[in-house]
User: Fold this.
Amino acid sequence: MAVPTPSRVSRTAQIAATDPNRVLIFDTTMRDGEQAPGFSMSSAAKLKMAGVLRDLGVDVIEAGFAAASPGDEEAVRRVAGEIEGPVFCSLARASENDIDAAHRALSTAPRAHRRCHVFIGTSPIHRSAKLRMTTDQVMAAAVRSVAYAASLFDDVEFSAEDAFRTEPAFLAEIMEAAAGAGAQTLNVPDTVGYATPEEVRERYRFLNARIRPHHPDVIFSAHCHDDLGMAVANSLAAVEGGARQVEGAINGIGERAGNASIEEVVMALKVRGDRYGVTTGANTPHLVRASKILCEITETAIARNKAVVGVNAFAHEAGIHQHGMLADSRTYEIMRPQDVGFDASSFVLGKHSGRHAVAKRAEVLGHALAGDVLAEVFAGFKRRADEIGEINDTELTAIIAAAAERQERPAYAAAG
Ligand code: KIV
Ligand code: ZN
Assistant:
């Protein structure tokens, strides 16, 4: 692929031209994510979040939907003007008014860092029930609006909303027409989370074969929703099918069940680089911070067992696991906690923990336990764990003291 000259070439096109296996990360936490009930963000909150996303190294930040409200236009304007580095994007319906609002809002960013994201519903149900338009009318609106956006922006993305329930031939036709009208990125959203990974892989291969011969530099994008819990698997399948941009949100927030979770996609591509053979620009040690700040801003919590960023993601309680971890962390961890932003793995002591782990923790707390005292402490530990679940350091210290007292002799020696 020829490397485009820098003038009038968008930042994302420059990045894509450097490596055909570089996957662009498009973050929509502040647009699709924010659209979902409970995740509304003020412009100050968006500014804070955008700073974290910049540190995380996402390539594109969809900062909002400028035409949705004066407040959202202002938020996009502020974020695009105050944060440097990524490309900033505003969503727009296939209408000049929306595209003008996006243009006004993004005027605060350098030209190469502005993207307009134009979408229109293309599936039969969206055409008939929502838009009340024929395929010809949808096609005309898409081409007209993409061409208008391309007259104002060097970077235009076109989304065929509900692409996976759209007739494949019409989908290919409208995508090709959008590319012809000036869209460099073609997004194939699984708007309702309906597709399966096999279908996704095949659909990207089909679109690649149909469109790339005429538009070799076009970038296919994935935007998968999680209604059936397949958003991340579908995004990865899209990459296998040739997508080189993945859209998602921190903690997987988004309409209904959410979008593909950025932290999961990014770590899957990294940890299983052997399988996918692609790279991203993500600075992954910022993932936990991004997740935490989003929780703080939106006053929401994530599940303990949330992949990659949940508190249990690197926590071990079961004795067999703790024993394995003490021998070699690769027994039960496929990535290092530091790679995603945790300080270390954690060993949680509870009724499933073994004697070895209890002795180790006691040693860290300054008590070298052995023999009868260890047996006594371990028995006391199990009884208390049955009562209260997790045994923290204070509890363990109390158990050790009680055991020592029962022994009525200084049978344990202070380690330090
Ligand atoms: O899910 C969807 O189809 C969208 C589009 C606007 C890209 O969010
Ligand atoms: Zn969406």
Observations:
- The longest strand covers residues 114-121.
- DSSP finds 18 helices and twelve strands in the chain.
- The pocket of zinc ion (ligand 2) is lined by residues 32, 189, 191, 223, 225, 254-255 (CB under 6 Å).
